[in-house]
Design a protein that fits this description.
This protein is an all-alpha fold. It has one domain. Helix content is 72%, strand content 0%. The protein is built from eight helices and no strands. Helix 3 packs antiparallel against helix 5, helix 5 crosses helix 6 and helix 6 crosses helix 8. It starts with a helix and ends in a 5-residue tail after the last helix.
């Protein structure tokens, strides 16, 4: 693998977290927690919202462009080690929450993480159908939908006063 391939391998495996021997999606989602927690150190208010959505969109586009690379490197159409989709899905959940509520607290991050994993694993309609799209787009888009569900439920949870 050349240096460019190594860099994209690192990105799509969540800096190796997707190589965990069990629950690679859960470990891979942790790679999304880091930028979601660090971005508020540099941005606040509308700038934070733009930064979160922009990073999610950039990583989504990058992930969708990895169809040929993924087919070449992994033996499966949706390999467990490919966790960039989990990173993007978690960022979508947090970006939605930040857009409606504001900067997420540590508790909001924890609950959002859990909610995203539940929606990503259970894949309620139409999330499960979205992964039928071919290539890396199909790998990525179902996690965006799971992130939207998780973010929406997280906003609702906060509106009901269950989290601060």
């Amino acid at each position: 693998m050349n240096i460019f391939d190594r860099c994209r391998y690192l990105l799509i495996t969540g800096f190796g977290l997707g190589l965990a021997p069990f629950a690679p999606g859960t470990f891979g989602t942790l790679a999304g927690l880091l930028p979601a927690v660090l971005l508020p150190l540099w941005f606040e208010g509308p700038a934070l919202i733009i930064a979160l959505w922009s990073l999610a969109a950039l990583l989504f586009a990058f992930g969708c462009a990895q169809t040929a690379f993924t087919a070449r490197v992994f033996a499966k159409p949706d390999p467990g080690a490919f966790v960039l989709d989990e990173v993007v899905g978690y960022l979508v959940a947090i970006a939605l929450y930040a857009s409606v509520v504001g900067e997420p607290s540590a508790l909001a991050h924890a609950i959002g993480f859990f909610m995203f994993r539940v929606f990503d694993i259970l894949k309620p309609p139409p999330v499960g159908r979205l992964e039928e799209y071919p290539g890396a787009f199909g790998i990525m888009i179902d996690d965006v939908a799971a992130g939207l569900y998780a973010g929406g439920l997280l906003v609702l949870t906060q509106a009901l006063g269950l989290i601060a």
